[in-house]
Amino acid sequence: MLKFIKGNLENIDGVEVYPMISLMIFFIFFLVLFFWVFTAKKTHIAEVSNIPLEDDTVTENNTQL
């Protein structure tokens, strides 16, 4: 299967730039995410981390149709 993909990609001019662009997007995304994690306010992190533990369930009326 790789020979079919490789054969088609050899005919495209400038195709070698796409892996570099995807690597840069991947790297920049995780660099920004890393920066956000270390600069986020501790109160916000604590508030968001407790969301799954809160018991704010909404009770619905059990009416039959």
Automatic annotation (TrEMBL):
The lineage of its organism: Bacteria, Pseudomonadati, Bacteroidota, Flavobacteriia, Flavobacteriales. The chain crosses the membrane at residues 20-38. It comes from Ulvibacter litoralis. Keywords: Membrane, Transmembrane, Transmembrane helix. It comes from the Bacteria. This is Cbb3-type cytochrome oxidase component FixQ.
